[in-house]
Amino acid sequence: MNTILDTNLLTYYLNKCRLADFFPEANHQQLQLVHYKKGEAICLQDQDLKALHYLVQGSIKIVRRLFNGKEHILKTHTKPILIGDIEFMTRQKAVTSVIVLDEAYVIQLPLTDKKSLLSDASFLYHIGRGLAQNFYQQNITSTTNITYTVKERLASHIIENQINNQCHLNLTLLADRFGTSYRHLHRVLNQLIVQGLIERTSFKTYRILNQKALLHLSVIN
How far apart are CA 210 and CA 221, in angstroms? Predict the structure, then answer.
């Protein structure tokens, strides 16, 4: 973890992710841009939350440690997302761990004055809207995991996470998330390649060759 003192870079990410209006103007001077390396934890389950974190670049996994000691990957993210909203609103310890997969740039707002944040109507609106969107998406995801095949879910994941027709796939993480074996997921991935829907371009990176067919196969068509 390394705090970056480049204010121009901080401003760049605030504008790129449209966060200037998300964070209250009175708190802008407290914002910090932090760089995390692979494997570092942005927050750990059952620890007190010291700051709100907004992922602006990079990839993370959200992990829940179960009562039997095993860990379950709830979700992976490569797009901007707020971390700590549930804990902030419910005033409880971190409910999950957030671990960096590759590297990540995060804008942090230290929670030194929660009272003023909780009295800011605009800020609470943004927090509430984000929580509602996440809850809506979780309902869809839970239904999808029960109803659809691994191939349909993999196609959906590729469509949702592609950037310029390129998608990075970590099969170990996805297998855990889909509730299937690595071997079966790898077999399904090869089926998409053989069918000419995608092709492997480099290690863990794939390019969409037939987006129309992939979209038709997915659960978001």
Answer: 14
